[in-house]
Amino acid sequence: MNFSSKLIEQSVEAFASLPGIGRKTALRLTLHLVNKSPEVTQQFAEAISKMRQHIQHCSICHNLSDESICNVCADKRRDRSLICVVESIRDVMAIEDTAQYRGLYHVLGGLINPLEGVGPGELTIDSLLHRIAPQEQPESEVKEVILAISPTIEGDTTMFYITKKLKGSPVKVSSIARGVSFGGELEYADEVTLGRSIVARLPYKLSE
Amino acid sequence: MNFSSKLIEQSVEAFASLPGIGRKTALRLTLHLVNKSPEVTQQFAEAISKMRQHIQHCSICHNLSDESICNVCADKRRDRSLICVVESIRDVMAIEDTAQYRGLYHVLGGLINPLEGVGPGELTIDSLLHRIAPQEQPESEVKEVILAISPTIEGDTTMFYITKKLKGSPVKVSSIARGVSFGGELEYADEVTLGRSIVARLPYKLSE
Is the ipTM of this complex over 0.90? Predict the structure, then answer.
């Protein structure tokens, strides 16, 4: 691309450095901002710059937060005996969107992946173990840990590691239910899901 | 979407205000920046904010420029007798990329579109006429105006308007050649292009 302006070129490079945005899209976004008033761009740049400067990880669950303790951990009405362990904050948002869960979270910040050099030390597993069995208190208020992690190789390794670390602890370890989607047609379910959902069948209960 | 952080929400809203970026993509871009160092975001925000603050329209051709006169108009080696009239700066970039044109440009900033309230007054047509026939000089250095405008209803109206305004002027008005693409198969050309390229046929010249 042949830019008549260095400023335009730098703005296009900036946008194109973001994932999934090519140079054509970056130019379209830049020209969009040029056609709007300078205040629009100022507000855009400030929102992003302010977010990055002030964003923190919650010191308890490692979720992204405006304060040092996130609003889930700070909410007194939530069930402190339940911790749902997830890979990233995107999973927290997905579960919160269902409005079905009232416990706390723990964000691992990734999954164990030896090929990419991610060991348990890079994740927040130690912090999770400390939450479940704090040294200061004789008894933990945590009763159950729910593993809401994808059953990939990395996910299975991570779940195995956490479960092994919790062996001997009175805390119950569970995993989210997997099977054919509610409302999903059997013929469109993938083979692994359908196969596993037959192996892991449950007693049929009439809904009340 | 259920945001645990107001800062994240504001950054997502900022990205999602750009054309073609939805809230899911906006979240992905925001989390990408969170995972990089704060300097990356700072540079990103500064590049865009600086661009919008300092960008200008060239006072001669209305192309986007860092200075009050763009580097095409300022280039002494370019042919000042030719002006290529285009709709937007994107067209300037496309023509510059071909490296086939050594004249100057004139960016209209749109096309005449009465339905959307865009009349000749909203475009830079007066400035084009002034460039072609300046009052200060008895004779203009411009010899030819090339209309490189899409043959849509708006484009045709704009070309008609400019041509009519230039009637009686010694300046030659031409339009870029249209027809089946070089290397294009006849069977894949659209009907209008193929039909018009037969009507507008040219004497066949052996290339030397």
Answer: no
